[in-house]
Design goal:
Keywords: DNA-binding, Nucleus. It is found in: Nucleus. This is Myb-related protein Myb4-like. InterPro entries: Homeodomain-like_sf (IPR009057), Myb_dom (IPR017930), Myb_TF_plants (IPR015495), SANT/Myb (IPR001005). The protein has 16 helices and 2 strands. With about 250 residues, the chain is mainly α. Strand 1 and strand 2 form a beta hairpin. Helix 6 packs across helix 9, helix 7 crosses helix 9 and helix 9 packs across helix 16. The chain binds a DNA duplex (21 and 21 nucleotides) through helix 3 and helix 6.
Length: about 250
DNA sequence: AAGAGCCCCAACCGCCTAGCC
DNA sequence: AGGCTAGGCGGTTGGGGCTCT
């Protein structure tokens, strides 16, 4: 499951954490806090880099960290927040008490790969319907490229789902992703949306939103009133539409 | 039963940003 | 203003466990 422990050139331990190391780190942080991660391992007597300690603490040892089994509310909320924030896992995690960005990221990746695989209609749609981002030449060329590179149907459906994701073009390209480059393509995407017609695209977003979250979750109105709910949120409705039925079935 | 392939997730890596000098 | 450092973030990888054949 995890990498086998080993020591790097500088003598720092890497790979899986032992229970003893966990205890040492937990006890030290509970007693002294974590003012300086870089010097923490030295004072705590752990042969790890500070970064590794921070990660272990935030993702595993920190009190209140929930593990496994996502509730339907959490799944729904992750979907919703991903529409707003894209792959900003830390921002999504901030709205999900007890969940870490790393865990949500893993959950999203594995869950959506699985769902995309289970939903053959999405790959069918990719063939039969023009890509909704077609107005963007850059994205279109990338789609073609990706389609050629990846053979299996599975990949096509995954790509289609992820293309609908806010950051998808850049995320899937070989270039590094950035918000600004996404925002740069906003105008083309928006123009596509404005030109489109049909019930689906005019359906209110609320249709897909459950309003019965506990108070500690982000409230629906908070999401809807968010100024960042712009072009890509509506673009992501495609993703939502494809995945939600399967998602719900799996949960039920 | 056993080998192959896939899934899942902890951990790592590289980059970016904020803060300090 | 520019360089340095530490912390944080998102993407990727490694490998044990699970499922399939």
């Amino acid at each position: 499951m995890v990498r086998a422990p080993f020591y790097d050139k500088s003598g720092l331990k890497k790979g899986a954490w032992s229970p003893e190391e966990d205890d040492t780190l937990r006890v030290y942080i509970e007693e002294h806090g974590h003012v300086n991660w870089r010097s923490l391992p030295k004072f705590a007597g752990i042969s790890r880099c500070g970064k590794s300690c921070r990660l272990r603490w935030t993702n595993y040892l920190r009190p209140g960290v929930k593990r496994g089994n996502y509730t339907q509310q959490e799944d729904d909320l992750i979907l919703k927040l991903h529409q707003e924030f894209g792959n900003k896992w830390s921002m999504i995690a901030a709205k999900l008490p007890g969940r870490t960005d790393n865990e949500i990221k893993n959950h999203w990746n594995t869950r959506f790969k699985k769902l995309a695989k289970q939903n053959p209609t999405s790959s069918q749609l990719a063939k039969e319907q023009p890509c909704k981002h077609e107005s963007s030449p850059t994205v279109t060329s990338q789609n073609t490229e990706l389609g050629a590179q990846s053979g299996p149907k599975f990949d096509a459906s995954v790509h289609q789902i992820l293309e609908s994701s806010p950051l998808s073009p850049e995320t899937f390209s070989s270039d590094s992703s950035s918000l600004s480059s996404n925002q740069a393509s906003a105008s083309t995407t928006t123009s596509w949306f404005n030109e489109s017609s049909g019930d689906f695209w005019t359906e209110p977003y609320q249709l897909y939103v459950q309003s019965n979250y506990p108070d500690n979750y982000m409230r629906e109105e908070e999401v809807l009133s968010s100024p960042s709910l712009t072009f890509y949120d509506m673009g992501d409705m495609d993703l939502f539409n494809q995945v939600m039925p399967t998602w719900q079935e799996n949960i039920d």
